Amino acid sequence: MIDKALLDILACPACKGDVELKDERIVCKKCNRKYPVKDGIPVMLIDEAQQ
What CATH number has the domain spanning 4-48? Predict the structure, then answer.
């Protein structure tokens, strides 16, 4: 779904932590915010994240 190279360069916009792909969402390993993926594009906006 999302290229591993892209995941390697992405960071959480809220805490700058590393992220991983879980259940079709981008999840921050540090603060646990969950960012949606819409049409294969990660939406890395703090307002769109779930805590």
Answer: 2.20.25.10
